[in-house]
Amino acid sequence: MEILIDSANIKEIIRLSDLYPIDGVTTNPTIISKEKEPFLPLVQDIQRHIGNEKMLHVQTLSTTANDIVNEALHLTNQLDGNVYVKIPVIPEGIKAMRMLHQEEVKLTATAVITPLQALMAAKAGAHYVAPYVNRVSNLSVDGTQVVEEIVNLFNTYKLSTKVLGASFKNVDQIKQVALKGSHAITASPDMIDAMQEHLLTEWSVDQFSSDWQMAFGEKTFIK
After folding, report:
1. List of domains in the chain
2. Per residue in 81-112, pLDDT tens?
3. Which of 10, 125, 163, 216: CA 20 to 30 A from 23?
């Protein structure tokens, strides 16, 4: 499963990429706005730090197909490397995906709430679909079940589009979508850290260190 950072904070992206096997970064207009920096220089800076092989997902703002296409082509002209253009699954967005698919632009369908939206986006040429797990769950529908249904649809119809789970409130949601076959997840820095944290792991490490020092009086076996 691919793990992406859902953030535009350069310090956090550098820190997490140093620690973990990160596959890329996702952004959206809300995430970008939190950094209070000019848009294009910021996403170019993110790309410089993650390199050209890791994925960078950047979202369009327009709501009509022609304008979405223009924004997408502008992004791909300004950014090098493994760039995916994120487009919401509104009707005009689906139309734009169909147009951009002909231009061989890599696409991520975002703001996915239902399996049928995901199916439509996949048929329109999306390489990834990003269901909003927690937002769906807030509607009294199990967001992790929606992910499973999307995975099953794609398998049934032999579609190559990948599922990129997004919008997580806790690590159990991440675990559940992983168990249900999501090809990728994107999560905030604190959620990615939480994936790796457990009090018993920290206790075990402290115990190893304490027992070693009691026996040998040293913190390391390297002299």
Report:
1. 2-198 (3.20.20.70)
2. 999 999 999 999 999 999 999 999 999 999 99
3. 125
